Amino acid sequence: MKITALDIRQKTFEKSFRGVDREEVQAFLNTVSQQWERLGDENRELRLKLEHALHDVQKMREVESSLYRTLKTAEDTGNSITEQAQRARAIVDEAYQTAEKTVADMQKEVSGLGQECQSLEQQLDTLV
């Protein structure tokens, strides 16, 4: 049974052979009803605070989740950039090696053509 402050204030007691001081009983009931009201108000206030706190916790969880997703995206992006940089470095290294080989081959060819030119010049000199 739910008891309200008004129920406490309006409570009456039957008289008995060795009755009680009605004023003392009434004063006690008034004190109890005032405390009951105060506790009820405090209970409502605490419930409201709890509701706000739970709402704030939910917001914080959403923010935490969002931050986690953002961090994960940044981490994935960083890993992707690192992989792309490694592939780019491999391509540049391969191109550098190909260029060095091409230059070396061309130098050999130029050297061979230079020798062939000298040989042809000597043949020309002997013919002339």
Describe the structure in your own words.
With 128 residues, the protein is mostly helical. The protein has one domain (5-100). The chain is 88% helix and 0% strand. The protein has 2 helices and no strands. It is rod-shaped, with a radius of gyration of 49 Å.
Report strand %.
under 5%
The description of the largest β-sheet is: none
Pairing-aware structural class of the strands and helices? mainly alpha
Number of strands: 0
What sequence of helices (H) and strands (E) makes up the elements? HH
Structural domain count: 1
Approximate helicity band? over 70%
Low-confidence stretches: none
Task: Write down the overall mean pLDDT.
Answer: 92
Distance between the termini: 136 Å
Q: What would the principal axes of the Cα set say about the shape?
A: rod-shaped
Short description:
The mean pLDDT is 92. The protein has one domain. Helices cover 88% and strands 0% of the residues.
Can you tag this structure with a few keywords?
mainly alpha; single chain; 128 residues; rod-shaped
Topology at a glance:
Blueprint: H1 5-10, H2 22-127
